[in-house]
Amino acid sequence: MKMAGKTAGSTRSADVQVTFLHRLVLYVMLLAMVSLVRAAVPVPDIPLPQDAKQCVQPKSIMRREHFNFLYHQRDETMRRGIRTKRYSLVNCVSCHAQKDAKQQYIPINEKGQFCSSCHEYTAVKIDCFECHATVPVSKSAGQ
Amino acid sequence: MKETHYSSQQQSSPPQTDLSKRKWIGGAAALVALSPGLRLVELAAAKPNDQPASSAVRWGMLVDTERCTDSCTACVDACQLENGWGKGSTDESRSRATQKAHWIRKVKLRDRETGKTHILPLFCQHCENPPCVDVCPTGASFKRADGIVLVDKHICIGCRYCMMACPYKARSFIHEALHDQRVLVPRGKGTVESCTFCVQRVDRGEQPACVEACAKLGNKALTFGDLSDPESAIAKQRTEVTSRAIRADLALNPRVRYQGI
Prior knowledge:
The complex is a heterodimer of chains A (about 140) and B (about 260).
Chain A lengths: L3 H4 L5 H28 L18 H22 L8 H8 L17 H8 L22
Chain B lengths: L18 H16 L5 H6 L13 E6 L9 H10 L20 E7 L6 E7 L7 H5 L5 E3 L5 E3 L9 H5 L6 E2 L18 E2 L5 H4 L6 H9 L4 E5 L6 H8 L2 E2 L11 E4 L2
Parallel strand pairs in B: 1-10
Antiparallel strand pairs in B: 1-8, 2-3, 4-5, 6-7, 9-10
Helix pairs in contact in B: 3-7
């Protein structure tokens, strides 16, 4: 079989038809694969905050950059004591944590919640919540 | 630890006055005039959220052991509640008592000759030359600009060299997964931790939880403040009373001093 690049300049229609058919089969197979994958792992239905209308940055930026914001903020807060609210993890949790039927906060890293649903879908492990609180209020009084 | 002799008191040099800091406090005073509902003490110490901790400030504590009583655990209880370790927490249920977190503990000293005992709270002494920072292989142990010694748990690998290096046994290690951390006090398995002078409270201009609890009870054994500010209560008290550092022989220059031992 000739390569597509070589046949482009050729005047023989049989060659062109063969490559066209090959391409068509390839596209159909790819489409079938993609639709199969989509059927197996549904795109997560991410619960959104009810009170806040918009995030600290547009959705497209937050999707790609949220960990950079958090990384930067973590060092600023820990090392230098800068405690601005905008990119702080506490601020994320306070907006995005959902409440259950009893009006109790659900941990944000629990299955199906804001952080975990997307991170599970993309297979990226987060270890923020091994140390950080998963709900916006401390369980016992004090803070 | 045992008490031995009283003669070798180490007095620190008089605090330096920093011009920029004086201006800053002047600004705070002007703010007080504008807003009569706010308290002067808190405003003078409050740090704006977007400003880094300043090296013009040098946080320190003075403990009056004569005012500290054997039966009272107010400072320990307040610390546990504020920072989420010990009694108020359901975590660390499988660790032995000697393994569990201890940010602050009461220590009894007894003079072997006279039998006189002293009770004092012991916690991170926030040394000027902290040995925990010297030995840390990752840079997780560090001293903030305002002198508060902290552990950056993001990069702590849990090797516990700092626990070995600390002459005050002030640090502890978390052996098991935690679940009920405080919102502003992240703590987790595999990292070392110790007293932070309640950095989350200090940054918003409040006193550490132990100091507040002790004062509320009326004992007033703990005084916290800025050692660099000659007008602060702690700086004034340190010019009036004799206080000493524990293990002054190590020349670590701890920011916590004890009076009456």
